[in-house]
Amino acid sequence: MFILELIVSAITSLLFLFFLLTSLGMESTGNPLVGPGVFPSILSTIILICSVLWCIDSLVAYLKHQKSTGTQEAHDSPNGLFHFTKESRRLAIIIILTVLYILILMPLVGFVISTFLFLFVSVMLFYGKLSSALIVSVLLSLVMFVLFQFVLHLPMPR
């Protein structure tokens, strides 16, 4: 578990370092304190600091565990290094679903339908009730549609 957490925290740190560098490279319009990259830079910096701290914490925990047992974790655990609990499998599935939702589904079928499908699958994954999944996904999709179109007078995200 320690090695997996260390790997994920390192990947997260590198990802948000990339986001920070990308947001700092955005062209500013006039005042550099109000440009398009300010908010992404602030968020990327905060998350980068947190992920570096997580990486350090994971490394310290791994080293303490290795020192106390004298062996690597993969040999101590009967299930090996990549044993996933039910919660970690659900987390991995929801991350994959989110990436598919944003990168593939939304450009193909639009915001409303892709949001409905994403919410339906997510609710089914966590609660397993067809009626709850339908009610939640329909209501939230409609609320977002009404909010964008009639309250905010903005086009739907594409």
TrEMBL record:
UniProt keyword list: Membrane, Transmembrane, Transmembrane helix
Membrane-spanning segments: 41-63, 91-121, 133-152
Domain of life: Bacteria
The keyword Chloroplast is assigned to this record: no
Pfam (any one): TctB
Family matches, as InterPro entries: DUF1468 (IPR009936)
Residue span, DUF1468 domain: 10-157
Name this protein carries in UniProt: DUF1468 domain-containing protein
Organism for this UniProt entry: Sediminispirochaeta smaragdinae (strain DSM 11293 / JCM 15392 / SEBR 4228)
